[in-house]
Write a structure and sequence with these properties.
Elements lengths: L3 H24 L1 H11 L3 H5 L4 H9 L3 H13 L12 H15 L4 H22 L3 H23 L7 H29 L2
Length: about 190
């Protein structure tokens, strides 16, 4: 994305901004409430999984800055859309559960569960960095299934509100990543790059 000279510098900047976003969200309840009010807009639910497409592309291209900017965009996209005028009860209940989970006391089980997010991204990035389509797609499927299972098992009936956005995102990601990977591999065969 950026020249090799600036790649890691830009990546570090966006990693720092992502870290600041998390600190702000977890320490400032007004900001968290503002962000989650906008996250009630389900457009953010549908676009968030699509950020896995550029994430995989930039991992394939071995662009640290592209990966870091994509992660920052993924997490901040929760508040890109305006607060909706009407929201289903299931969505409201599920997001109330998520806020409750995020603001609850940090215990060992919460730490281990939360670590699954960066570990999943690490494995996903590694799969495409090594240019292994099947490992990458397997991780994407496990990420989506894990999110759906956690949502339903933790938040109950309201957790089902995530299933359709997650499945749509999963299907689009798998299709576009598979297609893009094949194009990149053909190009690599022709050019040797």
């Amino acid at each position: 994305m950026f020249s090799k000279k600036y790649d890691k510098l830009v990546a570090s900047l966006f990693a720092f901004l992502t870290f600041l976003f998390f600190i702000l969200a977890l320490t400032n309840r007004d900001f968290l409430d503002w962000a989650f009010a906008r996250h009630h807009n389900q457009l953010s639910w549908f676009i968030r999984p699509l950020f896995l497409i550029p994430f995989c592309y930039f991992a394939y291209k071995r662009s640290w800055s592209g990966i870091s900017i994509t992660i920052f965009s993924l997490f901040t996209s929760m508040f890109w859309f305006p607060e909706p005028e009407t929201v289903s009860e299931q969505v409201t209940l599920f997001l109330e559960y998520e806020v409750s989970y995020l603001t609850s006391e940090l215990g060992l089980s919460k730490i281990l569960l939360t670590l699954l997010v960066p570990i999943s991204f690490l494995l996903l990035g590694l799969g495409f960095w090594k240019r292994n389509l099947w490992i990458g797609l397997s991780v994407i499927v496990m990420m989506a299934l894990g999110k759906m299972m956690w949502s339903v098992s933790s938040a109950g009936e309201s957790g089902k509100s995530i299933i359709i956005p997650a499945l749509v995102g999963l299907l689009l990601c798998v299709a576009f990543i598979y297609w893009g990977f094949k194009i990149l591999e053909k190009k690599k065969e022709k050019t040797g790059k």
